[in-house]
Specification:
mainly alpha, 7 helices, about 70% helix
């Protein structure tokens, strides 16, 4: 198996795993698109700030499209909105506490793989792997 095959297999397996997890947990109203939004909101919030504007800029879609999706996720109890204390015009988005717990189930294989890699490879090997991943990341974001 070459690099391309391995990466395609990884992406395929992650996607199938996510879809199976949705099915297993009775996601019902939770589409794959919703999972992706929740992942982006969670990541941006962990980095500091997530608003409708930051989501729209990240996804290169209109604020109105993001607002529709965020309102749907809020109605389902999956996203919370909090007015900024420093700038009352800014509304921060976050994944609701109960949804955060559900998302951790999706991250189980990821966390197990991290622990296995850390036990199986040297810090130098992990550093090379991280450099390789950063190469892929930088190429993906160049087009935007």
């Amino acid at each position: 198996m070459d690099l391309r095959d391995s990466l395609n297999r990884y992406y395929y397996d992650v996607t199938v795993s996510d879809l199976r997890q949705i099915s297993r947990t009775g996601g019902g109203e939770l589409s794959y698109n919703s999972i992706m939004y929740l992942d982006v909101i969670s990541y941006q919030r962990a980095q500091g700030e997530c608003t409708v504007s930051t989501l729209a800029n990240t996804l290169h879609i209109t604020k109105s499209a993001v607002t529709i999706k965020v309102n749907e996720l809020e109605r389902l109890g999956m996203v919370t909105k909090t007015r900024s204390e420093t700038d009352r015009r800014v509304i921060q988005l976050d994944v609701s506490p109960q949804m955060t717990q559900s998302l951790r189930a999706y991250e189980g294989p990821f966390e197990r793989a991290i622990r296995l890699v850390e036990r199986s490879f040297t810090p130098e090997q992990i550093g090379v792997f991280c450099s390789i991943l950063n190469t892929f990341t930088s190429e993906y974001i160049k087009d935007f």
